[in-house]
């Protein structure tokens, strides 16, 4: 992070603001959202990866913040990102690492609140089409299912395969989504392995249809794969949008942190009652087993750790030569100012 140097004038201004904040808290009260109608793009909304978004929507937390949100669901995170870049979405509920990827292409987008503190992505090899699997190198020449090419599921697969000496062009990536389509793609033999999120991966794992070979559904598994904390789902948007719509961004962060607070104490029956029936993929027990596996991966307060941003940059640079760490300004890829205010508001 960049160091901030205070001269006398800025120090005096900061001191005056601090005093004003103590004397009159209403000065810092949140204003009305500049943009009350917000278009949100997401890639695979039914996945646990985006559960905080679903909770905020289902429990009316966006409305409580004065927002009328329209959520468009795409096959994967890369498609949701395209919606933002193309102008059909204001904000994306997606993987933090897209902020780094886009900065390497001179497009500045920024995370405003964190939903996931671990990627929740696991890689499984089909026990039917690759029965004699031993190492990741065995996947050379195989078809690997991902939510969508260019998404975070693709990133994790690239990272793992590169460590095994397998280049991205030595496998075929197939977009299969994150729900029923992903299940059928593996079961029908269209793909030999899959990098995906829950509940899909737990369902395949429990039925013995895949052998899990890498797992970031837990904090320990994430540490093992990435060597540090790895931020996952977040709300990100153009830096210009953040600057022009601070109250809207605060309202969005409030809604998400409110849902993170709810999730800290929610029981299995609370989850089942709240999420749409279609998300259960026809098996409540397996859905809840999946939730228990990923629960600790859900963020608690919306704040993105500085070390997590550094981990993400290291991971991306390790297999993508287009990303030069020395040219990435991590401080511009995220802000915690909205999450910190929301954390204080909801005591998250």
From TrEMBL:
InterPro entries: Solute-binding_3/MltF_N (IPR001638), SsuA/THI5 (IPR015168), TAT_signal (IPR006311). Residues 37-278 form the Solute-binding protein family 3/N-terminal domain. Residues 1-29 form the signal peptide. Gene3D superfamilies: Periplasmic binding protein-like II (3.40.190.10). Its main location: periplasm. Belongs to the bacterial solute-binding protein SsuA/TauA family. This is PhnD/SsuA/transferrin family substrate-binding protein. The lineage of its organism: Bacteria, Pseudomonadati, Pseudomonadota, Betaproteobacteria, Burkholderiales.
